[in-house]
Amino acid sequence: MKSSLKQKRKDLEKVLKKEGKIAGIKEGKIAGSLEQMLVMTKRVMASLGKTIDEAMAILELNEDEKQYVRRSIAT
């Protein structure tokens, strides 16, 4: 009976570890995407001499993305 519980625990730990890894990858992709939007906005501003609003319009950012870029540039 004890070995069965140990095996179930190992199996559960394995599943949770895999789920955690998947969640971490997803989170990393989102963070990378947001960071790339910030970089691209800054590039458009610098190379084309555009304002932040003009640059974000060129890049067709949605409202959430715009808020992220504005917060990041402000800090």
Structure description:
It is built from 3 helices and no strands. The chain is mainly alpha-helical and 75 residues long. It starts with a helix and ends with a helix. The mean pLDDT is 93.
Low-confidence stretches: none
Number of helices: 3
How would you characterize the largest beta sheet?
none
Mean pLDDT: 93
Structural class: mainly alpha
- Helices and strands, in order, run as HHH
Instruction: Give the CA-based shape.
Output: rod-shaped
SS strand fraction: under 5%
| Intertermini distance | 57 Å
Radius of gyration, rounded? 21 Å
In total, how many beta strands? 0
Question: Topology of this structure?
Answer:
Elements: H1 2-48, H2 52-58, H3 63-74
Helix pairs in contact: 1-2, 1-3
Can you tag this structure with a few keywords?
75 residues, 3 helices, rod-shaped, mainly alpha
Provide a short characterization of the protein structure.
This protein has 75 residues and is mostly helical.
